[in-house]
Amino acid sequence: MYAYDEYDEQIVRERAAQFKDQVRRRVAGKLTEEQFVPLRLMNGLYKQRHAYMLRVAVPYGLLSSDQMRCLAHIARDYDRGYGHFTTRQNIQYNWPELKDVPNILDDLADVEMHAIQTSGNCVRNVTTDHLAGVAPDEIEDPRPYCEIMRQWSTFHPEFTYLPRKFKIAFTGAKQERAAVIVHDIGFRIVEKEDGEVGFSVIVGGGLGRTPVLGKTIRDFLPKKHLLSYTEAILRVYNQFGDRDNKYKARIKILVKTLGVDEFRRRVEEEWARIKNGTLTLTDEEIERVKGHFASPEYNRDAADGRASIDDKLASDPQFKLWYEHNTDDHRVDGYRAVYLSLKTPDVPPGDATADQMDAIADLAEQYSLDELRVTHEQNLVFADVEVGDLYELWQKLDELDLATANIGKLTDMICCPGFDYCALANAASIPIARQLNAKFDELDYLYDLGELKIKMSGCINACGHHHVGHIGILGIDKRGEDWYQIMLGGSAENDASLGQWLGPAIAKEDVSDAVEKLVEVYLEKRRDSDEPFLKTLRRVGQEPFKERVYADN
Amino acid sequence: MQIIKDQKIVDDRWTRVLPDEETDPEDVELKPGPLLVSLAVWKARRDELVERDDDAGVLLRADELLDELLDDLEHLALIALDFPYFRDGRSYSKARLLRERHEFDGEIRAVGDVHHDQLTFMHRCGFDAYEPAEFFDLQDALDAFDKYSVKYQPDVHEKNPLFRRAKR
Questions:
Q1: Cβ of A159 and B89 within 8 Å?
Q2: Which residue among B63, B124, B159 places its CB closest to the CB of A157?
Q3: Interface contact flag, A157 B150, Cβ < 8 Å
Q4: Would you say residue B100 has pLDDT above 90?
Q5: Chain A with chain B: Cβ pairs closer than 8 A
Q6: A302-399 topology per CATH
Q7: Which one-letter DSSP state was computed for residue A493?
Q8: Using CA atoms, how far apart are residues A98 and A80, in angstroms rounded to an integer?
Q9: Which of A109-123, A349-363, B124-138, B154-168 is the least confident region?
Q10: Which CATH class name applies to A414-549?
Q11: What's the whole-number mean pLDDT along residues B57-82?
Q12: So where are chain A's domains?
């Protein structure tokens, strides 16, 4: 993974020192809360319903074991013993004391981490495919470009006060795992017929109040122009994005208002003037950063472990289920990527305790080359596990409650923190997750349902990505009570689409019953057990689902 | 009024002619001495302002486009760019384009909701003068220009990004 040099280190240290001074002035009463707001927001510190919330950047979701130990230490010593992994591959702490935040930032800096640009109207943490570098279907590892983008966007003098927050995602694989189509800019690594590798550029996707799928504004961008082209997009957006209404300020609205052709024309016109300038990436710089993500020394004999695992697969059905559902293919023979499910029943989706984090760090060190990743679906990944170690690892993960074999299944829900923590939320989301877990506690039943993604948000800001859930659930407030609207048919993968509302909102206690009815209709209508939920829905339409859910009304 | 100019505290030498929208720009009085006028006044009284011996400057609101001034840059000693609230970042792009693309070498002044913590970014985008907002301690602000000793990006003063500048 990327290792800081003196320059990266200095910038993070200086930021921590600057914020320490700002907090000192605030605590001493020299800054009013009003004056302090913009300063703390630039450091990922939000005021939530009960306390401050600190969001720590996990650049493109990649963590070393030592970084994970530091995150565990922060959870234990400065918070209430746990942290919440988010859909943007970051981690949030819900209970830090303001006076402790400078120390937290110092501790983070010790392990090359920070909270820079995790909030505010600037370029946020760049995200990517959680299987980057190991996926068999990858054209090229996107992480070096994520890091190049991270550096370019850190304290960019011109783009620190954009009309609204700005999210960039990269993917290098054929199978979409980074949801680039619902980002402000999505870069998809593509290969031309002559073998040249570059990016297709997708702009103006996003969820929130106005969900939109991004539009491709350039089919092929040579790699060396990555930064100048991004600068051109942001310069157009910075000048012409809506500043009057924060709900119309995202770049997706500008693309919509201008029309994609006019937007593209403006970007290309601006780019023509800065293209081939000093922002042009040099081969040396690309190679330097790539060097940090070079393929590790894999064990050439790793595939020899397969025989012992085949025995276990035959003899231990629990292990077999976990292997089938919670591990993924690796480009190197003898290795697999392993998912650690943070969707254990009774635990809020994405939460991990300090003890779990420490144990995970140790396991990553022992079994996965000292690294792990956070997925945008709020699970963790050990990307480089030898097949011969899988049985032992599974047993240890099981002891830690991290081996629920539900990846990609109904109970592997994406879920925002909801009303219990978030000041914006209108309704609770975690109790709904709990309700669904109670209803769908039979794993065999879940497996029969196949891939079924439920995504839930506690308000229309859509942090739980409900528009791209196969089943999306949105919490709303109706005269002081929590009600839930259901939408069907969303996806942020290769077959991207936005969900459609099913009908009127449903009372809190009826949500899991409604989902059960949806599932029943699917089971009745599907052609065979190989036809997934989304496909059946697209074939038969919403009507039979709607009839069943609202039959009693 | 005192302002920061070239990272020093100085007295402001400019007189403002910024009539409200109700006032006909033809009716405003153009007194002797350097005048900072609104875009409306500039457009209505351009020839008069150009022919005077004293300096002229224009204050461009955040929602006014740079294009309006591009043909007149040689006649302007000052362009003031407004920050109606600190989160409105349009003027950063304008300052940078004025310096880098249009080679404007007069004063570029930040006016409006200008705070301590934005100075370093403004400076890098080409501002060289700052009118303090409320709560702004001029003396304190002099320390605010070089908050970060490392800069990844190129800017108005440093043409190369870090990857071209440093042996990494």
A1: yes
A2: B124
A3: no
A4: yes
A5: 99
A6: Sulfite Reductase Hemoprotein; domain 2 (3.90.480)
A7: S
A8: 14
A9: B124-138
A10: alpha beta
A11: 97
A12: 6-110, 134-292, 302-399, 414-549
Residue that is written with structure tokens 């995202």 in the block: A250
- Closest CA in chain B for residue A17: B147
**A422 φ, ψ to 5°?**
-90, 135
Taking chain A (553 residues) in runs of 10, the rounded mean pLDDT of each run is 95 92 86 82 82 93 98 97 92 92 95 94 96 97 98 96 97 95 97 97 93 96 98 98 93 97 98 97 97 95 95 96 96 97 87 97 98 95 98 97 93 86 84 90 88 93 93 93 95 93 94 95 95 96 96 73
Show me where the domains of chain B are located.
2-165
CATH of B2-165, picked from 1.10.10, 3.20.20, 2.10.260, 3.30.300, is 3.20.20
Q: Would you state the structure tokens that stand for residue A527, as one six-digit string?
A: 């052609």
Half-sphere exposure of A113 (CA within 13 A, CB side): 27
Tell me the C-alpha distance between A314 and A335, whole Å: 19
CATH for A134-292, among 3.40.50.2300, 3.40.50.620, 3.40.50.720, 3.30.413.10? 3.30.413.10
- Closest partner residue to B152 (CB to CB) among A154, A273, A281 is A154
Best mutation target, B163, B165, B168, to test chain A (most A CBs within 10 A): B163
pLDDT at B135: 64
The pLDDT assigned to B36 comes to 98
pLDDT given for residue A553 in this prediction: 58
Adjacency order of strands within the sheet including A62-64: A62-64, A371-374, A380-386, A335-340, A327-329
- When CB atoms are compared, the residue of B88, B124, B153 closest to A161 is B88
Q: Is A6-110 a CATH 3.90.480.20 domain?
A: yes
